[in-house]
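Putative DNA-binding protein
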Amino acid sequence: MRVPIHFFARALYVFGEIQALAGLLDTARDDIGLTLMDENLPQRVRSKPGKSGAL
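Tokens:
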């Protein structure tokens, strides 16, 4: 079941807890999301052969 985020925002507003929404949306504190993003990073970046990288 999907629930739009504005329903949660309105409920938090009604209960006087709208500042809690900032905590829920703070990506720097999202351990699961950060872990998933780290898994998708390339393990190693390699340059193409024959290119020295100098101008």
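The radius of gyration is 21 Å.
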